[in-house]
Design a protein that fits this description.
The protein has six helices and eleven strands. The protein is an alpha+beta fold. The strands form three sheets. It has a five-stranded antiparallel beta sheet, sandwiched between helices. Strands 6-7-8-9 form a four-stranded mixed beta sheet. The protein has a two-stranded antiparallel sheet with strand order 10-11. A hairpin with a 6-residue loop joins strand 3 and strand 4.
Length: 210
């Protein structure tokens, strides 16, 4: 099953031919990037076989392109948790704060019962081998929690992300929405920002269906 934050290896030719039927022209850097490295990330939104919301990462931070793909254009699915094993094989692992933070977090979260792994630039580099992480890069983490996380557990998990070489941003994905672990653990009111496929809204229970 394809979920938000998965990295997909796609067939760039068929993807681009299909997407060119849309109203917006595709920038040249998107075409070049997909030919160089045919990997895209699944964005938040409604996922169907005929329309998977995806994003293309360029070489510049400002280069992000949203589009959609059909399931038959997908050649491989890479889950964030699958990238944890390869995190120690890169020669850059000990050089950059984001990679060092991931190694330390793996030790701290050894007993975590939820499926989790790196997203963002760290996940992209681990999946593709293309250098995407810089000296100032944050470490984006995705946690898939199909069952509710208690407040005390959330605070403990968040505490373990502190005092690492890089800033760690943890996004929790439930069957209904996504939310910030930090906001959930230390919320000032009963409501937090919930990012649902239909859009963002305030709510108190991330595991409650719309």
């Amino acid at each position: 099953m394809i979920r938000t934050h998965d990295l997909l290896k796609v067939d760039p030719l068929h993807l681009l031919l299909n997407s060119e039927r849309g109203s917006q022209p595709i920038p040249g850097w998107v075409v070049d990037r997909l030919k160089q490295s045919p990997f895209v990330v699944v964005r938040s939104g409604l996922i169907t076989d005929n329309a998977i919301p995806i994003g293309v990462r360029g070489t510049e931070r400002s280069q992000r392109w949203a589009m959609s793909s059909r399931a038959d254009h997908v050649e491989r699915i890479i889950k964030p948790f699958q990238l944890l094993e390869g995190a120690s094989t890169l020669s850059r692992t000990n050089l950059l704060p984001a990679f060092r933070s991931l190694q330390l977090l793996k030790r701290r979260w050894t007993d975590l019962k939820y499926e989790w792994g790196p997203g963002g630039s760290v996940g992209f580099e681990l999946a593709t081998g293309i250098e995407s992480v810089g000296i100032d890069s944050d470490l984006d983490i995705v946690v898939y929690a199909d069952q509710p996380i208690g407040i005390d557990e959330a605070r403990s998990l968040h505490h373990l992300t502190m005092k690492l070489p890089a800033i760690v941003d943890v996004r929790v994905e439930t069957p209904s929405c996504a939310f910030s672990l930090q906001e959930y653990a230390h919320r000032a009111s009963s409501n937090i920002l919930l990012r649902r496929p239909s859009g963002s809204m305030l709510g108190s229970d991330p595991w409650m269906s719309e």
